Amino acid sequence: MRHSSLCAAIVLTIVAVGLSLGAGEPPAGVFRIGSLTVNPGQSLSGYLDIPPRQDEGTTIPLTVIHGLLPGPVVACVAGVHGCEYPPILALYRLRTLIDPLKLAGTVILVHIANVPSFARRTVYYTPADWKNLNRVFPGSPDGTLSQRIAFVLNEEVVGRCDVLLDLHGGDANEALMPYTYWMIGDDPALNAKSRDLALAFGLRHIIIDATRTRDLTDSKYLGNTAILRGKAAITTETGALGRTDVEYIDMAERGILGVMRHLGMIEGRAEPVANPVWIDDYIVLNSGTTGLFTSLVKMGQNVAAGDRVGFVSDYLGTPREDIRAPFAGLVLYVIGTPPTSRGEPLIEIGHIKE
Questions:
Q1: What is the CATH number of the domain that holds 294?
Q2: Burial class (CB in 10 A: 0-12, 13-18, 19+), 299
């Protein structure tokens, strides 16, 4: 949906790297996002601006690398959750690593989708409205800050790409093993393309996720929004507990470059993961009470149905709730810090497909 206020709502401050633009109309073959115009063979960095309303507004830093040769438009979005650092740092590496003169197609690098969360080091939520950005898509141009960020990302990034990589990692409270979500929609051909992306990214554990809503007006998640708009997409998880370990940054970088080789955008042979572990069901175990969470398992650990995997105590230290595995499976992530509130996630368990 287009809105008359979009041009006013998206102001791009441009920092040019590469060829400078001359006067008059830009040549054929340019790539536009917001008010940014990028020539073939050029890399430009700048900001999508979210003007203030009832809040201070924010900016979204991004880089567009527009190749000399024709090819797909791939959007890589990091920092939807501000404390998930490895994908953010991987995109800053790729900003200077990808050569537009040797690139087929275009790469949009959204370095930090949620700058307020990044700057304030908040887990899950945007500090201005206390909403989870990855639950408010497709957003609204007249909503709270999270909703306006989602709207701009949907209009300017999802709307201009062919492929979207929604790049996550363990938030500051999540001990999380690396894995990819392969989201299943209603289009078999699109599902197959997204499956190929998951394999090309190279993480061994892949969740087959058919649970996402089919309602584009309440798509909730960035990756799901792309799929509902007919774009191949995956969501990846690389990183744990808000750490910046080089191995996690390398993992995200390799995954993105693997997808680009798969799509024929850069030189090199695509090497999809050879022996993927498919996870055909998963459940997030939420806390039924507020207090202190104690985990009895670690990420990557196998558990049996009925196993006591953790418990929640009240603020006097009295155990109030046991957390048990509903089926045999693999611990995909576990909350690694004590605080918990009623309804918040504690552990995710995946069922491995036979």
A1: 2.40.50.100
A2: buried
**φ/ψ of residue 91, rounded to 5:** -70, -35
d(C-alpha 153, C-alpha 78), whole Å: 12
Tell me, yes or no, whether 256 and 305 share the same domain.
no
| Structural domain includes residue 270 | no
C-alpha distances (whole Å) from 320 to each of 173, 241, 296, 310 are 21, 26, 15, 11
pLDDT per residue as tens, the chain (354 positions): 444 344 434 434 333 433 333 333 444 599 999 889 999 999 999 999 999 999 999 999 999 999 999 999 999 999 999 999 999 999 999 999 999 999 999 999 999 999 999 999 999 999 999 999 999 999 999 999 999 999 999 999 999 999 999 999 999 999 999 999 999 999 999 999 999 999 999 999 999 999 999 999 999 999 999 999 999 999 999 999 999 999 999 999 999 999 999 999 999 999 999 999 999 999 999 999 999 999 999 999 999 999 999 999 999 999 999 999 999 999 999 999 999 999 999 999 999 998
Q: Which domain holds residue 329?
A: 280-352
Domain membership of residue 305 (yes or no) is yes
Amino acid at position 309, single letter? V
Q: What is the pTM assigned to this prediction?
A: 0.91
